[in-house]
Amino acid sequence: METFHRLAGMTETHNNQSEHPSYPIPEPPPIPDSETASQYAASTHGSRVSLPLNRRASRKSIRSTKSGKSQNGGIRPPTTHPPLPTTQPQPAQPRISQDSAGSSSEEFAWGPSHPCFPHPNPHCSPDSPEAQSTRVIRVRRDWLQAGDLYPQYANLYPEILDPLVTDEDFRFLISSLNARLKEVFNPHTTRAWLDSVMGVATGFVWDDLGLTGAKRGVRELERWVERWNAEKEREGKEVRVVQLRKTGFMTLDFVVPDPGIDVVDEGGEGGEEEMVGGIGPAE
After folding, report:
1. Which range (56-65, 83-92, 152-161) has the least confidence?
2. Rounded distance, CA 249 to CA 221, Å?
3. How many structural domains does the chain have?
4. How far, in Å, CA of 102 to CA of 99, rounded?
5. With helix as H, strand as E and coil as C, how does 77-90 read?
6. β-bridge mates for residue 137, sequence order
7. Is residue 22 part of a domain?
8. Domain range holding 175?
9. Is 74 helix (H, G, I), strand (E, B) or coil?
10. Does residue 120 belong to any structural domain of this protein?
């Protein structure tokens, strides 16, 4: 009988377990790939910038200025301050529009540093009629492009050159000169290294004979400027570009007829005699 009871009990237990409802077992999520994880992190979190590792600590911190009493928690007696004087309301000042403020901030102060200022012509004799009838419009070097490695001129068009030199002609002239100057004076070219080695090997006779790439490039550049001046002369425009060696490659000078607006003020007679880059009158 016990055997039958055992068999019956085991059967009941098995039946009770089978009567309980079976719940679905949730499946674990798939493990993402490394690329998927990185894309997910990049999409959910914004880009961050860490502090530089070579930063220096500030020596003027607030903690260094605290006294020993304040660090120990000492209590100071309350200080009495005098009453503040009453201020009368000031009248409202007229507001300046943003257009006028922006235009005044963008304009240059009129004087020898202005791009359109006509300088005296230092490339002729001071007593010649040309010195009295012509002026020089100077385009300065752009030191932000290449520093002092090779000359580069600013692409800032002086409107006083219109209509002798149009905006398109000026942009073409500046871009052509900058490209040629970079090719001639760039010290990181193979030709520059070859000229340096040949100069040392020959006791700089290579340089004296004018066989370097820089001297050849300067001669070609001067011939190109002469062709540009001849083209403007054929067009009947009284403008010419001074050879860059005469200005020491510091400025690009346009010789134009005197417009008669080179006076800074009535009392400043020495302002118009100022020369940019230390360029003086020709002997």
Report:
1. 56-65
2. 12
3. 1
4. 5
5. CCCCCCCCCCCCCC
6. 254
7. no
8. 135-257
9. coil
10. no
pLDDT value of position 260: 84
Does the residue 110 lie in any domain? no
Question: Which residue pairs, CB below 8 angstroms and at least 24 apart, start in 125-131?
Answer: 125/281, 125/282, 126/281, 131/281
In a domain, 233, yes or no: yes
How far apart, in whole angstroms, are the C-alpha atoms of residue 276 and residue 262?
Answer: 15
To 10 degrees, what angle do helices 167-185 and 213-234 make? 170
What are the residues whose beta carbons fall under 8 Å from the beta carbon of 110, sequence distance 6 or more?
117, 264
> Tokens 């860490």 appear where?
50
C-beta separation of 173 from 228 below 8 A: yes
CB 248 within 8 A of CB 277: yes
Q: Which pLDDT belongs to residue 105?
A: 38
Count the residues in the chain: 283
Instruction: For the chain, report the end-to-end CA distance as a whole number of angstroms.
Output: 141
Looking up tokens 């607006």 gives 261
Return d(Cα 166, Cα 51) in angstroms, integer: 50
Q: Residue 140: enclosing H or E segment and its boundaries?
A: strand 134-140
Read off the pLDDT of residues 218-259 as tens digits, 9 standing for 90 and up.
999 999 999 999 999 999 999 999 999 999 999 999 999 999
- With a CB cutoff of 8 Å and minimum separation 6, the contacts of 273 are 120
Q: Which two tokens stand for residue 78?
A: 């309350």
Amino acid found at 186: N
- Give the strand pairing for 134-140 and 240-241: unpaired
The packing angle between helices 213-234 and 190-201, to 10°, is 120
